[in-house]
Design brief:
By secondary structure, the protein is α+β, with helices and mostly antiparallel strands. The chain is 26% helix and 23% strand. The chain contains 17 helices and 33 strands. Strands 10-9-20-21-22-18-24 form a 7-stranded mixed beta sheet. α2 crosses α16. The structure holds flavin-adenine dinucleotide (FAD). Flavin-adenine dinucleotide (FAD) binds next to α1, β13, β18 and α16.
Length: 609
């Protein structure tokens, strides 16, 4: 006999992929928006036995997670939306979600929806800088000094690097946040009514030329008009050392989530235009669907859409003044990305500064060139992207697609002027090398960009925007402390679900620690199901036959698993696989956070099943 111990006492109760044993208090929840926040909330509710239906206004899930594939050949894509994941404590939600998804791999998720993390290179020695007409080293962008790019500043500042200057201005805030986020953020909020620019003038005493220098080198035009907490948080995230992206494209994440949720639970092409409370406490949703008008009634609804989209749902209750102000005013910054597909990955071959990943910085309209971290060193065509934020992004909007392409190529030709492909000996001609382009003007889409608060908005808009209104709840990256990131979308969805059904743990794999008679841990983590449990077994807690994965130190063992209470499961089906290998058994102990479902493991004789 062995016992199973949960590493976190709160993660108890059992759910697994496949069917739902609906608890007696099961809710019927409508979710507006099939971005990460909407999908996360839907899955979290579903594994707790609630019924969900997601309304997505477009024909795809993912929202601002959006990979554009030029062709289906390997690495011929660019990330038009989210592209990189910093591995820090602040971003744990994303990595937990990915690890949660990965538990189902090999069993239920089709191979073209699996999520595999690969290294993302934030910078590379070959990255360039081209600012103020001066070319230089973009790899150590933070070490740029005003003198090195002939930027006129008052005496005494010429040789101060952007890093030193920013360190003096916000180093203490960052340290405080790293020590204790809540206390650190509290201290930061004292400066919420200041724009970062005003803070630098008033508190730090910086001359305007110095502020302009730092903003140009490290950020984008007019970003320092945002609130102090916003800019400090941005700096803390970009100070992360280890970064990842998803192999074959970030799209894989929402694709896996929608698979686990069950496509039947998503209504595509359904733009919600109305949300109303009924007299008997329910909530109705009206949408314009592919087949005309949709009307549906739910116990509760989550609006997992950006404020700009919510504002345009005019047929809804008028909430308090503070809420309405928040919906109307929360500031989103414009974002612009263009992917350019070339006949070669010339940037990896030019002399004297070949570039493998990372990004170059310029004050030309393209602002950043981001080199792909996927497919480095491959022969054949490759895709890079140009990326602009804030005012630098807005200015792309009025141009036609042809004008945008022409402008981007002109800027790239300036960056690579006079450089030679080391393989062919031919000067780089971006016009000749171009195969095609695609772009995303986010300010022209429903989100309008990403949340970046103006001065005072943390203090006055954040809490009212998050507050639930009766049976209507709110989610979306803008409602989290880590907005502008996928992690923020997850955090907001987790908060909304907890607000609705009580505290439940976030989506993360639940580590099991199995101990044998001598209480020696001998297996950690996953088990493989050899035979899918029957309906009866699930409902009556009958023994299940499982096989351990085994590894170098752990023999493959068969177990009989006898839960003391019935299990229920949700999402997709059980593995039919007999393989006793790395395939994960999608058994979760989650759900009711206040009690533990006991179970017994009996070690059966013999090796792997
Ligand atoms: C260019 C860009 C780069 C980014 N880079 C990164 C990055 O590198 N790393 C990172 O972690 N994050 C990044 N982000 C941020 C990240 O993508 C977002 O924080 C996150 O995806 C937001 O998820 P969400 O669910 O809150 O909103 P969204 O993704 O906007 O989802 C909302 C969904 O609601 C739908 N919708 C809107 N209105 C309606 C309606 N009326 N009816 C029905 N459906 C509706 C939309 O179509 C959309 O699918 C980036 C974002 C952008 C745009």
């Amino acid at each position: 006999m062995v016992t199973v111990l949960h590493s976190r006492a709160s993660l108890t109760c059992a759910t697994v992929s496949g069917r739902i044993r609906v608890p007696s208090n099961s809710l019927n929840v409508g979710i507006v928006g099939g971005g990460i926040a909407g999908l996360y909330a839907a899955l979290l509710l579903q594994i707790h036995g609630h019924r969900v239906r997601v309304f997505e206004g477009t024909d795809r899930v993912g929202g601002r997670v959006y990979t554009h594939y030029f062709t289906q050949e390997q690495d011929q894509y660019f990330e038009a939306g989210a592209m990189r994941l910093p591995q820090s404590d602040f971003q744990q939600y994303t990595f937990d979600l990915i690890n949660w998804v990965k538990q189902f791999e090999g069993l239920t998720i089709p191979s073209d929806r699996r999520v595999e993390l690969i290294e993302y290179r934030l910078s590379d020695p070959g990255n360039r800088l081209f600012i103020n007409g001066v070319k230089g080293d973009g790899a150590s962008i933070m070490s740029t000094t005003p003198a090195s790019i002939q930027w006129n500043v008052p005496t005494g500042y010429e040789n101060k690097s952007a890093k030193d200057l920013l360190g003096e201005a916000i180093g203490d805030f960052i340290e405080a946040l790293q020590q204790d986020f809540e206390t650190g953020f509290e201290a930061l909020l004292k400066f919420d009514n200041y724009s970062f620019r005003y803070y630098l003038v008033d508190v730090m005493g910086w001359p305007t030329e110095v502020i302009d220098f730092v903003e140009t080198v490290t950020s984008q035009t007019n970003q320092f008009a945002l609130s102090v907490p916003e800019m400090v948080m941005q700096n803390i995230d970009f100070a992360t050392e280890k970064w990842f992206t998803i192999k074959y494209g970030m799209n894989r994440l929402p694709a896996a989530l929608s698979w686990l949720l069950g496509e039947d639970n998503i209504t595509y092409g359904a733009r919600v235009t109305g949300v109303q409370n009924t007299d008997d406490g329910e909530v109705t949703i009206t949408a314009i669907g592919n087949n005309g008008r949709i009307d549906a009634t739910f116990d509760k609804v989550i609006l997992a859409i950006p404020p700009a989209a919510l504002k345009m749902i005019a047929d809804r209750p008028r909430w308090g003044t503070d809420k309405e102000l928040a919906i109307r005013s929360i500031h989103f910054e414009a974002l612009y990305k263009m992917g350019l597909r070339f006949k070669t990955r010339f940037w990896e071959r030019v002399e004297p500064n070949p570039t493998s990943g990372g990004q170059s910085t310029t004050d030309l309209p393209i602002r950043w060139i981001v080199y792909p971290s996927n497919g480095i060193g491959e022969d054949g065509p490759g895709v890079l992207l140009v990326y602009a934020w804030m005012t630098d992004a807005t200015t792309w909007l009025p141009l036609s697609p042809a004008e945008r392409r022409s402008l981007a190529l002109f800027c790239l030709s300036q960056m690579y002027d006079g450089e030679v492909d080391s393989l062919t000996g031919v000067p780089v001609d971006v016009y000749d090398l171009l195969i095609g382009t695609a772009d995303a003007v986010w300010s022209a889409r429903t989100s309008t960009g990403d949340a970046m608060f103006l001065p005072g908005q943390w203090l006055t808009r954040f809490e009212p925007a998050r507050r639930s209104e009766g049976n209507i709840f709110f989610a979306g990256e803008h409602l989290s402390y880590h907005h502008t990131w996928i992690a923020g979308a997850c955090e907001s969805a987790h908060n909304a679900v907890c607000d609705m059904i009580g505290d439940v743990p976030p989506l993360r794999p639940i580590p099991f620690f199995f101990r044998d008679h001598d209480q020696q841990p001998f297996e950690h983590g996953r088990l493989s199901a050899t035979v899918p449990p029957t309906e009866e077994e699930l409902d009556h807690g009958a023994p299940l036959l499982l096989g351990s994965r085994g590894d170098d130190v752990t023999p493959k063992v068969s177990y009989q698993f006898t839960p003391h209470e019935p299990l229920f499961k949700s999402g997709r089906g059980w593995s039919q696989s007999n393989q006793n290998s790395a395939a994960a058994f999608p058994l979760h102990m989650g759900g009711d956070s206040h009690r533990t479902i006991g179970c017994e493991f009996t070690t059966l004789a013999g090796p792997a099943i």
